[in-house]
Amino acid sequence: MPIxxxxxxxxxxxxxxxxxxxxxxxxxxxxxxGGDVTRAATTAPTPLDGVLFANSNGAxxxxxxxxxxxxxxxxxxxxxxxxxxIADDPALAGKVLVGGATANLIDVxxxxxxxLPLAIxxxxxxxxxxxxxxxxxxxxxxxxxxxxxxxxGATFGALVFxxxxxxxxxxxxxxxxxxxxxxxxxxxxxxxxYGLSMDYQMFILARIAEERAAxxxxxxxxxxxxxxxxxxxxxxxxxxxxxxxxxAVSGLTYLKILGVGLVTAILVDAFIVxxxxxxxxxxxxxxxxxxxxxxxxPVYRRLRLAx
Length: 307
Description:
Its main location: membrane. The protein is α+β, with helices and mostly antiparallel strands.
């Protein structure tokens, strides 16, 4: 794990930094131009150290070796402690970069987490508004979002079972389970799977809403709408699942994750959520499923989506 001082620093400052970093839990050693530093001792520099860590273009750097796996929580804790040690030093604060796989993973996670609530909120709000303009109901968009969360939960559960816990290796052509899943995979899966689930929902609800607009009651509209879309949704789900299943047997674990996740999401959503749960929820709700406050009537009449 490299620690880089882009503008360089006096030897005394670097020596102090090396010794303080070496005292951090789970740090095995710190090597730099001044030698090899551990918690117990300091070894004099070798000629190779002078070449490897020589000041280049005004920058100095130190190499930190961790005593734990780079992707483990303990490694992440060590990196955060090292960064706090640097931030607390007036001579180094804002002038030192901590890199490496662990630091990169921390930065990626924090970058995703900082924007994730906003992104999810925007996606959910946009789909809810579109469903309202399609159906004229404020209840059905809520039902759609909740059911999509259920199918996504099943998908992420399957990913944990297979790739985090290491099951079904033989069926998927073999892979190495590291006890964790690439942090970007669930985000990408969420975007694709949520979009597909809402796509299927719009097929069904648009047809049901069309029958309601033609004067049918809730139950009749549900039966006609579901009957008209069931086969189309089933065929579409089967077709795209076959295509995506090819990714599940890829030699790249990341593609396997996407393949298994998307196939699971599509099949669960199409055959359990949209063709079973959604119709039954609408049936239970009855006319209440189509509730719309009167103050939203002008908005719906002006902006509604034609069926």
